[in-house]
Each structure stands twice: as structure tokens, then as C-alpha cells.
Amino acid sequence: MSKGNHWSRFDRRRMIVAMVGAAAALGTTAMAAPDDAVRTLLPDDIKQKGMLVAAMPLDFEPFNYLDAQNTQTGLDVDLFNSIGEVLGVKTEIQRMGFASIVPAVKGGRVDVGMSAMGILPDRLPLVSFARYGHFSNGLIVKKGNPANVHNDQGCGARIAAEKGTQPLFLWQKIAEKCAAEGKPKPEITIFDGKGPQVLAVESGRADAAAVGYATAIVAAKHSDGKLQAAPGGPVPGGTVECGIAFAKNRDRLGEAIKAALDVLVANGTYDKIFSKWQLSEERASPALVK
Fold first, then answer.
1. What share of the chain is helix, strand, coil (3-state, %, to 5)?
2. Where would you tag: which of 102, 132, 184, 242 has the fewest CB atoms within 10 A of its CB?
3. What is the pLDDT of residue 31?
4. What is the number of other CB atoms lying within 10 angstroms of the CB of residue 152?
5. If we measure between CA atoms, which residue out of 124, 155, 118 comes closest to residue 137?
6. What is the pLDDT of residues 121-159, one digit of tens each?
7. pTM of the model
């Protein structure tokens, strides 16, 4: 063995150790090993390009967002990257407004869409899903809850909701229920993005922002005491299954993703990811929903 080869191996070994250490410092989950049997399920075009592309809004903590270092992070990010590891492909996340994700998946601009996306009847004619969790709804209110809004008592409240999201659909149904019971309907204002809807609460333009239950807790945590999660537990009737969206003509891709999720469940990575983000109660067994 030449001295040059000896040092080359040493350098490679040192580089691997450094990469593992960097991953640990960033708090990422343990890497999932590629699974050859699952990889065979992938469509040929994905195998050839060696990459799986997802659309996420990256403004939805703790599911997918940019941290203080502008790094993509969150439960969805960890889970998507782990799926890529099982499938033996690289992963790329394109930032996209939530309302644009389903059209982008349907039109083939991206391979999948992921953002704790509710598996809803209105979406199923457009895309199919690989189920991986649940999504519960809640409200963000001002600290002290001056408007006295509760998750289970929102008739007559001024609700800020994000365009195209499941919380918006839920509160539109609640409005109908309030009216049927002879109560004042909530006044729903629609915003493009979660930032503007939370700002509406802070400025007094809205009494509450309709978001995911986990998001309400996180938003309150980062509000410097300005906001809190509304009391009353998850919004009744507002817990839905969520999944990774894929195009209707991409059944093989969906089957590969579901199989990769099964591997992550079996090897414990799935539970570790949900536990890391304190969302263990939102887990669901993987399944295809078409």
C-alpha cells in the first residue's frame, strides 16, 4: 500500500466521521438505509433522475419551515428526507404557497406535495395520498383571550384563515352549523399565508387565527407573550388524516412512498421523527388513499 493510498483512505474516513458529527449537531434523525426491494417500485423516471422533488410552503412550524439559519426543517422535512434515503434517491424541496401545491402535483411540476395536508373529499378527485399522520385544528388568540374565543365555541368570532387550507374549510362548515343553530356565524377573512393571518390577530383585525393545533402552540411559544393557543382542546370535528399528495397517474410512485413509510415504521425512524417534534399523538399507519 502506498503512502498516498493510506492517506486517501484516512481522509475519506475522517470526512465520514465529520459528516456524521455535523448531522448530529444539527439534530437530524438517524439516516435510513436504502431498501433495494422498495426502490424497485419507483417509476423509471424517478430512478433515472435520482431525485424526488416535493413542494412545501416552508412556513408551517413544526411541520415544515425555515429555521434561524434558513435551513429547511420540521417533521415533514425529516420524514420526506428519510423516505428519500429508503428509496435511494436525493431529495429536493421547492418552496411553494400551500394553495399552489395540489395544482403543481397534478400538473407534474413536482413529484409530491407535503405539508400536513388533509386528505379531503375536495382534493381526492385531483390527487391521491400516501397517509402518514393526522392533523388537528386549533385557534391562535391574543394573550389573555380578550374576545373569549374557544376552540369549541367560535360562533360570532372574527376568524382569520389561510387560503386553500383545511382549517378554512372546517370553519366554513362551522359557520353553516352556527347559522343552523340560530347563532351568529363566524366572520371569516381569508389571507394568503400564515404570517398575515397571525398578524391580523396581533393587530386586532381578527379575534383568532385558524391553524393546526400544533401550530397554535408553536406560534404562542414564539410570540414574546403576545399570543396564546385558544382553550378547549382541538376544534371538534377538525381532526383529519393527512398525507403526501401524488398525481392520479402516478400510482407506482405512491406505492413506493407507502412502502418506504412502512420501512420507516418498522425500523423505528417514523416514531423517532414524530417524537422529536412532540407530535407522537398525530401518527397514523401508512396507507394509500385514492
1. 40, 25, 35
2. 184
3. 62
4. 14
5. 118
6. 999 999 999 999 998 899 999 999 999 999 999 999 999
7. 0.70
Nearest to 91 by CA among 110, 109, 74: 110
**pLDDT value of position 245:** 98
pLDDT in tens, 209-237: 999 888 898 888 889 999 999 998 789 88
- CATH number listed for the domain at residues 32-133+246-289: 3.40.190.10
Q: Where in the chain is the domain with CATH 3.40.190.10?
A: 32-133+246-289, 137-229
> What tens digit of pLDDT does each residue of 181-220 get?
999 999 999 999 888 999 999 999 999 999 988 889 888 8
In terms of C-beta density within 10 A (0-12 exposed, 13-18 middle, 19 or more buried), how is residue 122 classed? exposed
DSSP-H helix ranges across the chain:
3-25, 36-39, 44-49, 75-87, 98-106, 166-180, 194-203, 213-221, 251-266, 269-276
What end-to-end distance do the CA atoms of the chain give, in Å?
Answer: 58
User: Pairing relation of β-strands 112-118 and 51-56?
Assistant: parallel
Question: H or E stretch including 42?
Answer: none
What is the residue-averaged pLDDT of the chain?
A: 89
Cα angle: 104, vertex 106, 112; to 5 degrees: 65
H and E: helices and strands count for the chain: 10, 14
Omega prior to 62 cis, within 30 of 0: yes
Q: How far apart are CA 71 and CA 89, in angstroms?
A: 20
Ordered alpha helix ranges (H), 184-245: 194-203, 213-221
Cell 436504502: give the residue.
34
Name the CATH architecture for the domain at 137-229.
3-Layer(aba) Sandwich (3.40)
